[in-house]
From TrEMBL, chains A, B, C, D:
Keyword Cell wall biogenesis/degradation attributed: no
Taxonomic lineage: Bacteria, Bacillati, Bacillota, Clostridia, Eubacteriales
Species this chain originates from: Desulfotomaculum copahuensis
Designated name of the protein: 3-deoxy-7-phosphoheptulonate synthase
Keywords: Transferase
Span of domain DAHP synthetase I/KDSA: 83-326
All copies of domain DAHP synthase ferredoxin-like, residue ranges: 1-67
GO biological process, one term: aromatic amino acid family biosynthetic process
Transferase among keywords: yes
GO molecular function: aldehyde-lyase activity; transferase activity
Length: 354, 354, 354, 354
């Protein structure tokens, strides 16, 4: 890292910083400019967090040189990581589509949705049993009953199941049913929960927080990987901006950026990113064209009667049309959609936009 | 609420919306303009969340008329709520200062800090035993050992204890030691945790999320109150903005606004809001001048060696000077600082900026 | 519009609002709920701005029902508008690519760039003669000399010219050379300048402000159209968010949204939106897949020696590869790239994400 | 500045960067770490902008060490700058209040407002003759007629006049009437206009852009100073955030921060910052408690009939009460309000929050 001393820092203040760095095991290097003295320090980036150098007198700012994450970085693992859920490979060049209702509402609703999305080509069924709602008066999910229905839908369709885990205490229950554990956007920095899912032998779909930077998102992935679970799938789902016509602003650029900075697979959730079904197909195309490894799409047999997120849910017919579009864009990216594997190499190159 | 139909909505679409509203128990009212048909609906605001009207065809937008929160609103409870922690009253006109280190690091550090902040006039000791850190490689807190040290400091000084609870599973442990349970900014929408603290008989200090609106913040308070715990203290701690010289942007205006919209006490944490100790005293003065019921200030015996947040921690000397300033501003607001009660009435009036 | 009265509004206060509305020519309609009285007002939306109803006592909030823009709305003009610059049609189904250096630096640099982008399939040459720079010490552009070089490049290549006008006083000069006048992002709400370009018989490329909402952007277009110039091309170029790895966050979703709300053509500038050349091709593909009518791309013969925006400029080789990608995605959208026209109908349908 | 090379940068790439820096007149310094090679470069910060080093292959990022502004920095001018408008000193320890209507509407309205604010203790009259409005259909100001009325009000009351200049072409006209030229928030980065006001012998009140960082704001001041006009008054008027209950979020922390980074006087406009008159007095107190050198307050004889910004305008009665509050807070800061000078020293110390 680099420490910039303030223009009136005394020799003693500089000395104190040097000594502190050396005592912490950093190799230091002094460079005295006309207006500023600068100290370069080489050592274990992970120790930086606890040093509080900026609190030392005479220090103007501390500039980290390396990214704070290691295990999640492409430098650490140059090839693309492929995360598997049973026979479904995410990040292996083939595009996987996860689809289904926002919440599990009933046996009929879920099974109908499951058959419909499978028909259209989805390989993974989404559906919330535990729902984070901004109002305590809103439907909070069917909880365990919802998990049972998801398992039944898996039996009936062969689809894998991705569902959200909201809390460490209910993790064992959710993990007993899910094929992929979803960490919701609001929990991206729930470090307790991140540490817990790190101990479970299941892939984790980590949603980006509504106002998290890419670095903070990768640091959340680092928590899970540092805890021992390297099967992390990143999911861009829109960030909060001033634009209020859409629910969030889908950061499609995050796809090629994350593929460049990290080796983890990246999927996109245009339904939450936009909040209006009408614009979901266009952005599904855009996400795949930008190099996404998959999509997470809300589909409901009857959006107008959905207990949550109806406005952003596609009808089965619109979803089928979306899948047609996605197949055409995927082909253009030399990628397929669904189960079959393809050579990831070119896909990867495309991902960095070359 | 008001439903605005799109300019080309058909009579049948309007009919469908009216029927849906009536079936849900709303009293409806139709008003047909030249360019738009508008439906007014009167009924239980708390049912709005689950209706998904925006998903019905022909609906352009749904405009809620009432705030989504009830128990937290001043309309529901016109007088100021006073939350007590033992003999300390927060929101009763008297200004209470909570101070101490970011994290409990050691017996010596904590006891020294406790005596110093008590000396200067603080009535409540802050200190983290469980620390949410953005890096898995940073100091994560002393956990139970830290709680024991907080209890020892309470014994030694008579200060009350506020400390963060990060997870439902460790809640019983934290609640066994704390006088006030802190919900951190990143957990403001951890609804599982909110529901849990709602069941505990302890005051809850609810920090505003880094990019939460005031309405979302009050909805989080509503979660706790709806669950049965009305002893909520709101804490403004800075929101994320484009300004990067400061750690966050302290939204001081939120103080008079929340005092106007809600009856709950509001305190301000300038240390996290700014991230640089140098500017904390000026903003502590500003917060009290704007009508805050208290302050949360980071103080460390030796900031340069703090294991976290050193750069924003005041030395005991600077904290004592800050308390002098705060007393002078409080006096001007007809308020005192610390234990003794004063007539809240004028304080309240001042709070709404009159 | 709808006026929501506060829950304790008096009959006299309601009366006053009704009278004010009627005197301003609105047809009013009263609806008294249990907790709130609501007034619906039907009339000329454009008079709303000056009424200041929210300042009347007893008024809680005013909710506009209609968008504040008229001429720019699709309701006003259902078909897609096609803006022509000579024989180049923008918005007519065919995708047009505008490319060239950030700034005109020299005769050699500009002519080389012009030939290279024409070679690759661009139809319009971009290049700044007047440069808005955040530092007064940075290169401010060649001004009139730069305009002369642009004209020479047009002669030499047959490309049309788009260049920025920064100020009403230099408008006649710029208009004498440019085929398309560019309003920069920082000037999107420079209303003086908007009123001036409204009087010129040239197409205007209106960049979205870095933190403008879509509605504010369309209101800026409304200024130009209300002044008599309906040849407006909208350009999404990234909005400011917390993400700092990229220069801005490219709001690709704005493309289908604006195509839905407005009849004006929309193009995308991924170079400024991202700020790093490496990710520009992926986002150019995404923009076209989302339905953009064109692209604005920075290309420099030698980015490492560019006097501005080198980091986001493509080399001619990378630009040629990007154009290949763009042609493939355009074909998939049933659109072509460059001069020849195609049936706009399907293109339009695709644009709204169907 | 510091150049961080990517971890796989070749020796030749490092060499090329070194040569480029040396040729541009920088003294360079190489430091080779385990994972990264870092280059320190010492030289004229103002040349940095045009180098485009980040476009050179092998460069990961460029980190500036010094602030990009010079003339506006406190390092360049350690003492507080006092800007005078006739016999009124801004920044000299004494707090100056500028007040009046958003727009000049009529002779009666302006003269009435002028007498009322003077009565209450304001020394400078605000009022817009040229109005930047987001809608082309809103009142755009009385233009020259408005300037004449401002001059008449100055005659009648002895107040100085501050009014906005929107465009270089109308600058001579506005400058002929105004005592202080206001640059509106939306024009903060209208560099053409900044260069023009730099040539006029009048103080300039520079409003912070709605989403400008403090550094960008000081760079705008640098434009004016670099052009020869050092009489710049900075005005914080609220920044755009996600909070939508208030019009903007008033960044009160910017006051002590700017006083620390720069020598220029800083005033605060809570009326635009908040947008609701009810909260203006509380925030006026907060601004002065934080160290502001003055206030800009909207006052209208009849806010409910104001042609613009009625909802945020105070009645003369509320303004008089606000001035009482301000005097009390100012006294506590050892400052006075209005004409008479006091020793700036302690005021200055208070400003940096000591």
């Amino acid at each position: 890292m680099i420490i910039v001393m303030s223009h009136n820092a005394s020799a003693r203040e500089v000395e104190a910083v040097l000594k502190r760095l050396e005592n912490t095991g950093f190799k230091v290097h002094l460079s005295e400019g006309v207006e500023r003295t600068i100290i370069g320090a080489i050592g274990d980036r992970t120790r930086l967090g606890d040093m509080g150098l900026e609190a030392m007198s005479g220090v103007e700012k501390v500039v980290p040189v390396l990214q704070p994450y290691k295990l999640a970085s492409r430098a650490f693992h140059p090839g693309d990581t492929v995360v598997t859920a049973g026979n479904i490979a995410i990040g292996g060049g083939q595009i996987q589509v996860m689809a289904g209702p926002c919440a599990v509402e009933s046996r009929e609703q879920l099974l109908e949705a499951a058959h419909q999305v499978r028909e259209a080509g989805a390989t993974i069924l989404r559906g919330g049993a535990f729902k984070p709602r901004t109002s305590p008066y809103s439907f909070q999910g069917l909880e365990e009953k919802g998990l049972e229905l998801l398992a039944e839908a898996r039996e009936a369709t062969g689809l894998k199941i991705v569902t959200e885990v909201m809390d460490a205490r209910t993790l064992p229950l959710v993990a007993a049913y899910a094929d992929i554990l979803q960490i919701g956007a609001r929990n991206m920095q729930n470090f307790f929960l991140l540490r817990e899912v790190a101990t479970v032998d299941k892939p984790v779909l980590l949603k980006r927080g509504p106002s998290a930077t890419i670095e903070e998102w990768l640091m959340a992935a680092e928590y899970i990987m540092a805890g021992g679970n390297h099967r992390v799938i990143l999911c861009e789902r829109g960030i909060r901006t001033f634009e209020n016509y859409t629910r969030n602003t889908l950061d499609v650029t995050a796809v090629p950026v994350v593929k460049y900075l990290s080796h983890l697979p990246v999927i996109v959730d245009p339904s939450h990113g936009i909040g209006k079904w009408r614009f979901v197909p266009a952005m599904a195309r855009a996400a795949v064209a930008a190099g996404a490894d998959g999509l997470l799409i809300e589909v409901h047999p009857d959006p107008a009667h959905a207990l949550c997120d109806g406005p952003q849910s596609l009808t089965p017919e619109n979803f089928a049309a979306l899948m047609e579009d996605v197949r055409r864009v995927a082909a253009l990216m030399d990628r397929g959609v669904g189960r079959r594997e393809v050579c990831g190499a070119r896909g990867e190159n495309r991902n960095v936009g070359g």
